[in-house]
Structure formats: structure tokens, C-alpha cells
Amino acid sequence: MPTVNTKDGVTIFYKDWGPKTAQPIMFHHGWPLSSDDWDAQMLYFVQHGYRVVAHDRRGHGRSAQVSEGHDMDHYAADAFAVAEALDLRNAVHIGHSTGGGEVARYVARHGEPSRRVAKAVLVSAVPPLMLKTPGNPEGLPIEAFDGFRKGVADNRAQMFLDVASGPFYGFNRDGAKVHPGVVQNWWRQGMMGSAKAHYDGIKAFSETDQTEDLKAITVPTLVMHGDDDQIVPIADSAMKSVKLLKNGTLKVYKGYPHGMLTTHADVINPDLLAFVRA
């Protein structure tokens, strides 16, 4: 399997498809998934002539199940290790959910300083801060994330099934068409990863304040979010992020769920392509 070793000795699995001379697009997945969650986008963009790269975050998928480093700083540094090893330049970085937080920190701390990034996309992304605090009263209470931690610790197999068959894809909405294969694939990806990484990752995606990351980004950045996102509510994420970005554009999808990259790939993919080409 193709892998990269980080500075702290962690083995990161990655995929690298398409012409090596083409403009690269690097995808950053959400919690608790893997690079497989980008299948619909990677196939679409490689067919349009791009080089597409995606990696499994440390502790997720086929990457090493290490005990430490499950935080945004390490996530971003690991992504940079892949970008450096593959010498990705003029790259577009696209992140979903927790991966959106990873992209924001990557671009601010690594991508722009190294002049390797051209554009960024935050899809249903967690920045600037999910947790409710005195300075972020619209956020979600700590009890919501404690519930996720309890679910991972007590029976993550059942929790993952419940999340995928319910709020993640909006399959719990009246009249929703449920796709069992999508649910099973989400569960499969989650169960490939480490319970330790998933448990610690909840703190990373919920309690990391990325206000300064967003302010530091200067490259064109597209913020995409469904207004029926039950996992990362739009009011406390996309609506705030676009105001913090120097060169941000917001696109809201009426009625779309958190997992809209899968359920509505036929709409999202052309919109991503238009932004990449612009």
C-alpha cells in the first residue's frame, strides 16, 4: 500500500490517481471515516483530467492506529507530510466535516506558507467552533459531544450504524429514501479505524477554535453547506466561517444533509468542478 511516514513516525495511507502532471486536488475526510468516503468525487475529478489524492487520517482507515496525536495540529501536519512527499503544488484542498477543520488548519499553517495551495473548499465543515462557550453561544452543548464519546466507548458499532442510518444522511427525515449500501459503507469505514482515535477525535472536531485559521486564509475558499445539516448546524459553522474568510464564497443547499457529498453528488460535483476551474 502507498504510505508516507510523518515526522513523528506515523504511517499514513494515501491514494494518488490520475496524471502526475495534472493539477492536484487533495481530499480530507470526516470523522470517523477514511479516504473511501471520497469515491464519488475522486472518480469524477480523475475523469475530468485532474490528479486526485486522498489519505486516511492517523488512526483511521488503513493508516497506523497510534495512541497519540489525534488533534487538528497533527491532522494538518500529517496532510502536509503527504503533500510534501508527493510534491503537490497549485493544489485545491477539499475537506468535509472534520476534514474541513483539517483543511483550514492545513492551509493556514502549511499550505499558504509553503505556497503549495491554490484554493480551498469547506464542505459541511466544523469551523470555526462547534462547542457552545460564552463567546460562542450558538454552539452545541458539551453534553452533545459527551454523548458521542459515550457511544464510542460503550458500543461504537451500534452508534455508527445509528448515525449513518439517521441524521448523517438525513435518512431519518420523513419521506427520505434510505440507501442501505451507503449506511453499510459508512459503518465499514468507521469500524476500520481505531476506537482511541475516534474517541479523541471528538474533542478535536468539537473544541478546536479555528477562528484564527480562517482569518489567516487568503486563497479563494468555497464554503458549501446544507441547511438541513443535523450534525454540523449551518448557523454555527458556514454562516460564521464565510464572514471570517478574506476571500470566501458561501453556497447553501436547501434541504441537504451533512452527508450531501454522497446523497447529492450529482449536484455537488459539478459545483466543485466549476469552482476549481474558475
Q: Major beta sheet, specifics? A: 8 strands, mixed
> Outline, from the CA principal axes?
globular
Uncertain residue ranges: none
Helical coverage, percent range: 40-55%
Query: Biggest sheet: strands side by side, in what order?
Result: 1-2-4-3-5-6-7-8
Number of domains: 1
In CATH terms, what is the architecture?
3-Layer(aba) Sandwich
State Rg.
17 Å
CA-CA gap between termini: 34 Å
One letter per element, helices H and strands E, the order comes to EEEHEHEHEHHHHEHEHH
Strand content range: 15-25%
CATH C-level label: Alpha Beta
CATH fold topology: Rossmann fold
Oligomeric state of the chains in view: single chain
Supply the CATH superfamily name. Answer: Alpha/Beta hydrolase fold, catalytic domain
- Number of helical stretches of at least 4 residues: 10
Give the overall pLDDT as a whole number: 98
SSE class:
alpha/beta
The number of strands is 8
Report on the structure:
By secondary structure, the chain is an alpha/beta fold. The protein contains 10 helices and 8 strands. The protein has one domain: 3-Layer(aba) Sandwich (Rossmann fold). Strand 1 and strand 2 form a beta hairpin. The model has no long low-confidence stretch (mean pLDDT 98).
